[in-house]
Amino acid sequence: MGAQLDEETTAGLRGIRTRLTVATAFAMAAVVFYPALYVYEEYLMLLASPVTTDITFWTFVSASLVELMIFSPFIVLSIMALGHVRSLYGAIRRGEVFYLRKQNSIGWGVVTLLLSNPVSGVLLLISVPGINRLQIPPDPEYSAGPLMTVDHLVKYFEIRRTFAEAIKGGEQGKVHAVDDVSFEIRRAQVFGLAGESGSGKTTVLRTALALTPPTAGSVSFKGRSLTEMSSGELANYRRRVQVIFQDPYESTNPRMTVFEIVNEGLAVNNLSSSKEESVERVTKALRDVQLTPPEEYLYRYPHELSGGQRQRVAIARALVLDPELLLADEPVSMLDVSIRAEVINALLSIRQKRGISVLMVTHDLALSKDIVDDLGIMYVGKLVEVGPAEDVVSSPYHPYTRALTAAVPVPDPEGQKVRVLAKGEIPTNVSPPSGCRFHPRCAFAQGICAEQDPPLTQVAPNRRVACHFWKEAHDAFSKGLDGPVASVAQS
What we know:
This protein has 491 residues and is α/β, with parallel strands linked by helices. It is built from 18 helices and 16 strands. The protein has 3 domains: 2-83 and 85-116, no CATH class; 140-377, Rossmann fold (3-Layer(aba) Sandwich), CATH 3.40.50; 404-490, no CATH class. The chain has helices at residues 2-8, 10-33, 55-71, 86-92, 111-116, 163-168, 201-208, 231-240, 258-268, 275-288, 307-319, 337-354, 365-371, 389-394, 399-406, 447-451, 470-478, 486-490; strands at 38-41, 79-82, 96-101, 104-110, 148-158, 174-185, 190-194, 216-221, 224-225, 241-244, 325-329, 357-362, 374-379, 382-388, 457-460, 463-465. Helix 9 (258-268) crosses helix 10, helix 9 runs parallel beside helix 11 (307-319) and helix 11 (307-319) packs parallel to helix 12 (337-354). It is globular, with a radius of gyration of 24 Å. Residues 1-15, 36-53, 72-132, 134-143 and 487-491 have low confidence and may be disordered.
């Protein structure tokens, strides 16, 4: 799995490290220390929506901590979560919260009271900026066809074998990173890809960037397949399609100033004729991402910027080339919740001004509902549901989509509890399950699910689903059920 490890397991390794940390704390508590207080500093910050990895494991860890607090016969626990994820405090559902502002304690409150009657001025826990969804008028130039088309895309990676395995021979294993994925991106549209780690989202983005060739299928830009482009056409394509990486701390060179970082694309592509023109274009890009006044930032180094400012510099670096399509890989997941909305609003404002399309990879379904036009849900390399983001999140057809939405915590201690509907671990991409790849974890699975892979079928206007029993599932979900009704279970 070397190729897959190189591309997709960094976020998963963060989750594993946090699991080990939590397990070590539990074990030491039971054997040695018997503490009365556990302090978790951002213990879920690197695990899941609305941050970096899987929402299902986020829910599992939260439930485990709360169960330990309630049912442990030996330890009386008080959980103090020092974090920015407001939904967490709704998931805890009981207890006391002590909140801070600018390193000065300002009070405490019961969770229910804190969330229902927030204190003015407290930003990190209870006052999060909202997202301004902007309506983009259709562009007649692109009304006849999509800007980018992903058509039956397949990408397999061969598994590296040891010398002994190569001597023995036999068929070489493959990682099924992406398997028959199709979607379109229109002009000024934000298309989102969501799913657990290892589902193939980043591989789709890398293939769309022409960083890795497809095994089968195609990616086309304005009707022209990337594999058919000449070197000159490909160079122009890469100028018209820019990427925003996930981690602003790793994607900016610490030895370069902000001007040098943003201007690098202009210099490589010979797009400015003088230093004055470069400064003018870089200044305009910084102003577009709301780094104002831009003159104050031009000659700063990355270590002199906050995380939000660094990510705005990364966005400006992409925008300075005047692209038509942005490929955003978790563009705000590494940022504090207090500034996440500001960066997203800046990105959406630029989208409105310039008519830029965006392909966004994300784990955050709540964020997707607010900023994404169409949302595709991926599972073990397959696209299982596609449709308008708000409809997909609020009224899912596929059981896996239902499992993701049920695992999203809400900032309401009296609201519905999060539920873990997808039991067990996500299957490996090396030997995915036969038939429907979700059937080992699906409450609606029957014999046909293990035998036949369901095609992605249109079930409603602008809604496509890959499920043999989507009608029964949607009917159960509409009734507030998480599993099949008796008539379906018995059939």
